[in-house]
Write a structure and sequence with these properties.
Length: about 400
């Protein structure tokens, strides 16, 4: 997308606004799929939690992707987008047996990550195939908050509890049709991923009726110019060979599965905001924008880096700014960042705003959540309206319980 395209969208739809480039999503999907072209059966299940807009889910379906979901609401969104139940995987954590049963009744693939629910579900529904999520005890991920495969993680069943799993499977007669792992996000070291994959292969040998092995995701994308990223092509070459060899050992052609989220949508996204005020203090120049961590929490939550460009003045002299939001507490997007000269009223863009940005937005400070726009075939399509004051009141129930107290006062 060009700066002129972003400015036109900000002018038409106002700010702040999220914009997603469908061509980038498509190219990322094809890049990952082609990295494993030597494997006969590959299935990419898009992680809905990264960006759950219905239009994005429909785009994923058109590309051939399935969906990886973590809540019954995400499952319903997927079904509403037209995705077949067989192409949806449900991988929750800490949810009730009732929710899992309700999703299973929809025909969705169930993925269970704890012994208690595995035994309860297998006892009641031995004929429904289940995938098992393994915790490989491999520390991986770019931040402690997104590293989920280590020994203290709440996710997955420990590899040291394989005997417990086997006993439950034997006692219930349930069928295990898949094994799964997810070690974390922003994984850079291919060898760490391959090491964890070997643990998953060893686990798979215990189950004779598998249809697929799901290796999770967590591939790192570049966040700034010159940034390093997961080498998908080398990883694809190495894991494809190992997977094909394992299928020969296993005696059956299995499906190789992944559940990419950030890898597919992060780089497609731009978050546009208007500069309300440029404020000079004794030591800092602040650029205060018409948004805050209520709309984009990743910098405050994960210390995440988002490149910031001034689309209104892309060739101006570079100066140092601390970009801050309008939330009434510490609300910092960037500190002493080199950006083309900013004046009040300029539109700035945050890059890599496609994953875990709008999906983590809130109404904190009673602010409205922004609009979303899909840039497709060089046209801007509104895919979510900006919220209004009526949206804030929608589920609130007003009463007159204080009327007597008011009269008394």
């Amino acid at each position: 997308m060009e700066n002129t395209d972003l400015l036109a969208i900000a002018k038409e739809h106002g700010s702040p606004v999220y914009v997603y480039d469908s061509s980038k999503i498509t190219s990322q999907y094809n890049r990952l799929f082609n990295a494993f072209k030597k494997v006969k059966q590959v299935k990419l299940n898009y992680a809905v939690k990264a960006l759950s807009n219905l239009s994005i889910l429909k785009l994923m379906k058109s590309l051939g992707a399935g969906l990886d979901t973590v809540s019954i609401q995400e499952v319903r969104l997927g079904l509403l987008a037209g995705v077949a139940p067989k192409d949806i995987v449900f991988t929750p954590n800490g949810v009730s047996l009732e929710e899992i049963e309700e999703v299973a009744a929809m025909g969705v693939q169930i993925n269970i990550d704890n012994l208690s629910i595995l035994e309860q579900f297998g006892t009641k529904h031995p004929n429904i195939p289940v995938c098992i999520r393994i915790n490989p005890h491999v520390m991986a991920g770019g931040n402690s908050k997104i590293s989920v495969g280590h020994i203290d993680s709440k996710f997955g069943i420990s590899i040291h509890q394989i005997p417990h799993i086997l006993r439950i499977v034997e006692n219930t007669g349930m069928k295990i049709n898949g094994v799964h792992m997810h070690t974390g996000s922003d994984i850079l070291d291919v060898d760490v991923f391959l090491y964890a994959s070997e643990i998953l292969f060893d686990t798979a040998k215990h189950f004779k009726d598998l249809d697929f092995i799901d290796f999770g995701s967590g591939f790192k994308v570049p966040y700034k110019e010159g940034d390093i990223e997961t080498n998908i092509e080398i990883f694809g070459e190495k894991l494809s060979k190992r997977f094909n060899d394992f299928c020969k050992e296993y005696g059956k052609q299995l499906t190789l599965g992944f559940e990419p989220g950030k890898f597919l949508v992060s780089e497609s996204g731009y978050f546009l905001a208007k500069v309300n005020v440029v404020k000079q203090t004794t030591s800092t120049v602040f650029a205060g924008i018409d948004s805050g961590f209520n709309h984009l929490i990743r910098p405050m939550f994960y210390n995440a880096h988002h490149e910031i460009i001034n689309v209104s003045n892309p060739t101006g002299k570079e100066r140092f700014y601390s970009v801050v939001g309008y939330i009434c507490e510490t609300d910092t997007f960037a500190t002493n960042r080199r950006i083309n000269e900013i004046t009040e009223g300029d539109i700035i863009a945050f890059k890599n705003a496609g994953a875990y940005c709008f999906s983590m937005a809130s109404n904190y400070n009673s602010r409205y959540r922004p609009a979303e726009v899909l840039w497709h075939n060089k046209k801007a399509h509104l895919i979510r309206k900006r919220e209004t004051f009526e949206d804030l009141l929608h589920n609130q129930v007003t009463t007159d319980i204080f009327s007597k107290e008011t009269e008394k006062a």
